[in-house]
User: Fold this.
Amino acid sequence: MPALRQARVSDHGTIVECVRQWWGDSRTPEQARELSLLLPRLFLQFFSTTSLVLQDGEGGEDGTAIRAFLVGFYAAGNDTEAYIHFVGVDPALRGQGMARDLYTAFFERAAEAGRTEVRAITSPTNTGSIAFHRAMGFTPESGDREVGGLPVHTDYDGPGQDRVCFYRKIAP
Assistant:
């Protein structure tokens, strides 16, 4: 079972490569590269203390043993919210509870820091992510329209980039 640790800035290159490889089975190489652009180095420069990595054994300083990761942070504008930005799990380990473990650890750490709510977003076409978030106790926020009974925020991330926005209360 991979060991949980806090992310490091030095994990950035490995995490980007993981995204490109792990999503290569469902996207073209160009689409996987574009997806990896959602994780610029600044996320680990400024949010490594709130981001998590699951890795095999000790792993090297370069993070070569990373098997799953969660990039998240606490809101700067208030003391109550936390946000899960990006989560990845090695396809060979999917369905084994790795994402659940990462989310649970993030919830616990956020609650210890006094946060009472966690937010996340996903695409309305990502049915697996929607089901996972619901199973983890997230509730979809009201949107400006519905798609298949699901509340959607039109153009949330720019033109044509609709999103489902989730929130979950956690105990401080």
